[in-house]
Amino acid sequence: MPGVERRSAHRTLRPAGVSPPALWLLVLAAGAFAIAGTTGAGWLLVLVAGLVGVAVTAVLLPPVLLHRVQVEVQGPRDARVGDPCPLTITLTGPSIVALVGVRSELRSTTLPIRGLIPFVPPVRGRLEEVDVVLESAAPLGLVSWRRVVRAAFAVPPLVAPHPVFDSVPPTPAAPATEDAPARGPEARGHQLQRGVREYEAGDPPRLIHWPATAHTGGLMVREVEAPGIPTQVILVDLRRGTSAEIEHAVSRAFGLVLTALDAGACVHLGTFETEGPRLRRITTRIGAGRRLAVAASGPPPSLPVTAPGTVVVVSPQSDIRP
Amino acid sequence: MTQSGSFARLRRRFGTPRPEGSLPFRATVLAAILVAATAVLREVGAGPRLWMVVWLGIPAGFVWSHRRRFERNLWLKALLALAVLVAFANFLRIVSEIAVSGAAQLQLPLAELFVWVQFLHSLDVPSRRDLLFSLSSSAALMIVAAVLAMSMQFGVFLAVWGVAALASLGLAYRSRLAETPGLDRVVEDENGQRDVAARTAVLSFGRSTALAAVVVACAATFVFALLPRTQATTAFSFPAALRDMVRLPGGGLANPTLGGGGESGRGPTQAELEGRAAFGYFGFATEMDTALRGRPDDTLVMRVRSSEAAFWRGQTFDTWDGRRWTVTRDRPDVLAGRDEVIDVPLGPYDTSYGTRRLVQTYHVEVPGPNIIFAAYAPERLYFPDNAVFQLPDGSLRAGVELGTDAVYTVVSTRHDVTVEMLRASDSLPLGIGAAGEELYTRLPEIPARVRDLAADVTATAPTTYDKVMALQRWLAENTTYSLDIPPLPEGADTVDHFLFVEKRGFCEQIGSSLVVMLRSLGIPARLTVGYLPGDRNPFSGMFEVRARDAHAWAEVWFPGVGWQGFDPTAEVPLAGEGPGLAGTDLVAWAGAAIPGLVRLLPGAAVLLAFVFVAWGARALVRDVRRRHGLRRSGWAAREIGRLERAGRRMGRIRGPTDTTPEFVADLGARTDLPAEEIERLSATLEAASFGPTPPSEAERERAEVIAATIGRQR
Questions:
Q1: Is A140 within 8 Å of B169 (Cβ atoms)?
Q2: Which of A106, B274, B345, B653 is deepest in the core (most CB within 10 A)?
């Protein structure tokens, strides 16, 4: 369970609306004051003071209560653009009733609460923080105030692109090359081990490489290659193109990866990430989504002279098939 | 597109709203309405029919409306609209029968109209909007009640109504939010999370309502302190009412507060005075004997609504015989009015007065003298009788008894007198006429040392005003105020005895001494009796005049200015206080209330100590419970406790080092239950106490059956 911190980097607090009873209240107060002026009724002044006191309370109390609300937010490790991604939100502070939500879709609640709030990631990437909208007119419901809290994730969800399957080329058949002879595991009785790498979610436990794990201190798995399985290398080049074109290219790349994985191909994904160019084998959909979530504009990795199988370069302009 | 959007907005705003299902919200609105309607009925003294409409009709209407909230009720709406029109037509009929000047009599019909409309509306309040409208109309009822309220008891109604209204607003807000999809609550690993959530919601409402009430009270106090005092000068009609019209012999003075009422036209006898009521003031008679010792009490005699404090003047005495003051010219003129409005001319010994008007409305609380009190000088009288009597000194008497709930209004003209004006008046002709001068400077044979004292004290005073002030200073420096003075010796002169022998006295002795010394100097002066302004109630805005506020003071004639009051007993401003802030009265009221509160301190301290002890004991118990095991709450604790009791009966007392599985296994071994059942019970208890996932309902039920079976073992 990921730990979550709240960061108050950005806050806004502003009035959000006045309900009709608030206006009735002011009209009654004004009328009572006028009547007090003509009748000299002292109790009427007390009543006027009470009505004004209600109005003052209705205006001042909601922002004070909202200001004291603490917001924490947690999300799943992986998400996808356009797909529902409920966030776990924890609101503590004064016991008030309020509306809460991310963006404009607000839900009612009574604080304190730990609840799920609907959220659909709009863009790909590492979701570092979200704007949590709090709205309350508590306790009298006459004047609403809205506060936006920018809450940071301790473990930011990685938002994968929405895959686009249009114009996905058919996965090429497994080539029979010298480096990768068309022999299945059944033929040799075992798989080829290419090296070790860090464990990724979805890796079968039988692939854990215990000596390397003990050596590095982190969970390492054997990277194996079944010689009989077709290999596809997908390079994502996002150096040119508009923002929309880049996102579309990433979506197409994701579609390619998923199609290849579904076809049982051995997929290598080459992207440019924060750490630089990266070419790794992809074994799971989640792994592909994580890689593409953080794919950035930069030169893709250069391939070895003898690339293992079909190579596809996906860029905003077109798919380049060498 | 825009049109359809606007149309949708209009439909949302004015279309059929969603029926309101919150019973607490409906109940608090009903409570607010009942409190407000009760306050109105109490103030207007309504009959049993209206009480039944309020306390039977309105709740029944709410129940009916709640049950039919999903129906369209078109026929009902039509009937209600017709009924409202009938009620309004009836109100107009009553209004047409009331004289224009008697618009104050509209109170009861107006309240009746409000109550009927409220009742009719209660039959059709299906939605939240309707209920909020009802809440607003209850505020209108409170406004009506506040206009009529004079006593502090209205504060109780206001407080209860305020709490009900705040709770209603809070519940309406919650009901509104309930229509929005709620946040999915994440089920925690702890036991009984749902119960905690429900309890939190209830506590949340209680806390937020209490918080709102406290903040509203603080804000209202602050606002009230800043509001200007109420003014009573612009109403189109002034109150005048009389419960019973009991006629008195023409122009005579009756004062039931002196015991037996006193026969009209004469003062009370000594026998009457000895048996008089406790609060009466013997100055409200045609003769005042300064040898008598009276001590009026705190009885509330009347409330006065006025924008300024002033002396509520009753009558004057013109003739002094060394011991008694009498009204020698008590043959009154009849002042006739029309539609209960009576113009009051200046008396024969008055002069034209100021132009600033002061409206005072007097509400008689206990039957008193038929003197019509008024700030000097009355110009117009709104009185529930078309004739009153005016004495030559300008004072007014009613021709009827002024019993409880009698109300009359006096419009007086006021003159903002300055010291310069009074000093300059000496250069003007006296202007009171020879008869007036003779009447108000006349003295019997008085001891020479009184005359000499007056002459000595005023020897260096150049003007009449300075002479008055010099005598006042001398009285302040050489005499003391006291109600505990011995009886006047037989044959003694009151003024001489006070100035040279006793040197102690109260307002009659002090005021009489000033008047007598001024007359000895040839300055026209007279003794006036009436009431001090009294304490102004900061909430009702009215001056509360008590019997102990009865007072006597001197009036001195100043050419061109008229009669000017001087109170040698206390420092009294020449003119009334100006408009101020309501908070000033609040501070004064609090200051007066503090001594009473101090008396309550011991009891309050005991109560506070009890609360602290109870609070401490509660905290201690909670702390002990917490330290002796978090398991002592919830389902698991209850079942383990049951097993421990069973163990004690079976001779197996649980030790401090026994874990639950060990203890349960040991108990199970003493029963015929299968081992797997015992293990299941143990696992369920462990899961409920410490597990990440609480046991299911079925598992709990099964465990309870096993524990109960163990509990039945002997």
A1: yes
A2: A106
Closest residue by Cα to residue B357 from B227, B231, B228: B231
Q: How far away is chain B from the Cα of A36, in angstroms, using its nearest Cα?
A: 6
In chain B, which among 189-218 make CB contacts under 8 A with chain A? 200-201, 203-204, 207-209, 211-212, 215-218
CA end-to-end span of chain B, whole Å? 81
Measure A24 CA to nearest chain B CA, in Å.
7
- The answer to whether the beta carbons of residues B541 and A41 sit under 8 Å apart is yes
Whether the per-residue pLDDT at B248 is higher than 50: the answer is yes
Residue ranges of domains in chain B, CATH in brackets: 18-180 (no CATH), 256-592 (3.10.620.30), 634-711 (no CATH)
DSSP designation for B256: G
Closest-CA residue of A relative to B173 is: A141
DSSP state of B627: H
Q: Nearest CB to A95: which of B200, B233, B542?
A: B200
Rounded distance, CA B648 to CA B656, Å? 14
Could B224 and A46 be called an inter-chain contact, meaning their C-beta atoms sit closer than 8 Å?
yes
Cβ–Cβ pairs < 8 A, chains A and B: 202
* Structure tokens, B534: 């009294």
- The structure tokens 């609040």 sit at B586
For the stretch B610-656, pLDDT in tens is 777 777 777 667 666 655 544 444 788 888 888 888 888 888 888 77
Which chain B residue's Cα is nearest to A24? Answer: B136
Give the domain ranges of chain A.
11-160, 161-169+181-190+227-322, 192-225
pLDDT value of position B261: 43
Identify whether the C-beta of residue A62 lies closer than 8 Å to the C-beta of residue A13: no
Spatial separation of the C-alpha atoms in residues B144 and B111, rounded to whole Å: 7
Taking an 8 Å cut-off on Cβ atoms, the answer to whether A46 and B220 are in contact is yes
Q: List Cα–Cα distances, B647 to B135, B602, B630, B640, B644, in angstroms.
A: 60, 52, 21, 10, 5
| Spacing of C-alpha B641 from chain mean position | 56
Q: Which residue has the tokens 């039931």?
A: B256
Q: What is the pTM of this model?
A: 0.67
Mutation choice for A interface testing from B114, B169, B539 by most A CBs within 10 A: B169
Cβ of B160 under 8 Å from any chain A Cβ? no
Q: Comparing C-alpha atoms, which of B567, B561, B526, B508 is closest to residue B316?
A: B526
* A104-134: b (≥16 Cβ within 10 Å) or e: eebbbbbbbbbbebbbebeebbebebbebbb
CB contact under 8 A, B539 and A38: no
A139 closest CB neighbour out of B154, B155, B211: B211
B305 to chain A, any CB pair closer than 8 A? The answer is: yes
> Residue B503: CB partners within 8 Å, gap ≥ 6?
B478, B479, B480
Establish whether the linkage from the previous residue to B377 is cis, with ω within 30° of 0: yes
Q: Are A198 and A218 in contact (CB under 8 A)?
A: yes
Distances (CA, A) of A300 to A81, A165, A256: 23, 22, 17
Give yes or no for B185 touching A (CB within 8 A).
yes
Place of tokens 């709009």: A122
* Nearest CB partner across the interface for A40, out of B129, B158, B307: B307
- Asked if B186 is an interface residue toward chain A (Cβ–Cβ < 8 A), one would say yes
User: What is each CA distance from B3 to A168, A217, B10, B16, B147, in whole angstroms?
Assistant: 46, 68, 10, 20, 47
Residue B265 has a pLDDT of 39
Q: Are the CB atoms for B191 and B630 separated by under 8 Å?
A: no
Q: Interface pTM (ipTM) of the complex?
A: 0.76
- B534's torsion region: left (phi>0), alpha (psi -120 to 50) or beta? left
What are the two backbone dihedrals, phi and then psi, of residue B174, each rounded to the nearest 5 degrees? -65, -40
